[in-house]
Amino acid sequence: MLRGWTACAIIWKMPDKINLAKTIKARLPQDLIDFIRRAGEAAEKDQQRLYLVGGVVRDLLLERHNLDLDLVVEGNAIKLAEQIASGKKVQVTAHPRFGTATLRWSKCSADITTARAETYTRPGALPAVRPGTINDDLFRRDFTINAMAIVLNPRQFGEILDPHGGRQDIQKNLVRVLHDRSFIDDATRIWRALRYEQRLDFNLERATLALLKKGVIYLDTISGDRIRHELERVFKEELPEKALRRADELGVLGKVHPSLKCDDWLMETFALARERTLPDTFPHAELYLALLCYRLAPEETEKLISYLHLPKVAARALRETVELKEKIKELSAHGLPPSQIYGLVHGYGMTALTANSLAAGSATAAEHIELYTNVLRYVNPALGGNDLKNMGVPAGPEIKEIVQKLREARLDGKITSRIEEEAMVRLFIGK
Asked: Which CATH architecture does the domain made up of 182-262 adopt?
């Protein structure tokens, strides 16, 4: 049953019927159009109703790029997926426990879900689900702009279902929840509300904003793992700092850790991270997280790692960032020989190196880190362990020590050739 102010709004005005068949043809690539038409035909043949739902419907109306296909069927999703894939080069991965299936072909994929209804036994709990209608399925969604569906059955292909006024809210640039317990039932919707508001340049609808402010306390009912997933989604945004700034303004970011802030400094540092010439994987979630946490004390960082249950790779990146930050004063000294720079920063991952280069506030330290990243880390002696053994160096720690001395001499330009390395080794071993 609809509750509160939203129920009145829906009764007051229902959206006009429209058909998005032409929009689908204009906005989606032909292979996806062929797929959803074939899927609709398979559903029709089996007397099932199939719908395109969620973000892709919203983005079709907004003329934004979105190729993530989410389908909902009033029927058996796994059976339908197998029928769609029959005779085609399509891989089906079924999830019987959840009544869902994923189809993959060439470089495309689509998820098919059985229409379902949800109930929440307590705030923050994962919902109990049961099979339902498309209206049930749309009502369980987070915001009106994500609670629309497009019919894929051939006779009504492209017809839009909009029982909660999503089209009107898109026209008004509003993010609106479907009912007044939305943020209580699932407080992760708070993070999603901020992402959509900032990504789309929308505004939180007035009553929704009031409900969000009251619902911030319910973030305490959400596990750290789920909060981490929401942060990861924020970091995938084109401009994640916009959502973080809004989260800070509304007291949401402080629920992750009370010392976290998104101020002008962080906004500028995130922008710098995107301007820098970095590997294709940058900037990524680990780098954004390292920058967000850069001003935390070491013990605060450890608490955050524990709360978010960070995977080993991400936890190591944060710890390395903190550890390298402790060396910034040394790295800020002018005239450091390359071998000393190498010794200070060697062994740290790219996340820690990049975060400190961007955030340390020392141009000299940044130059030294960049020198290591671009040049020094690739410097190696010509002689390896076997070469040293052949020259009479006994196996053991002495080989490692001599290799290190050779590298330092190479880094500082004291030797530049294999011949000079061999002469240096002979001096070490007294030959």
From this structure: Orthogonal Bundle (1.10)
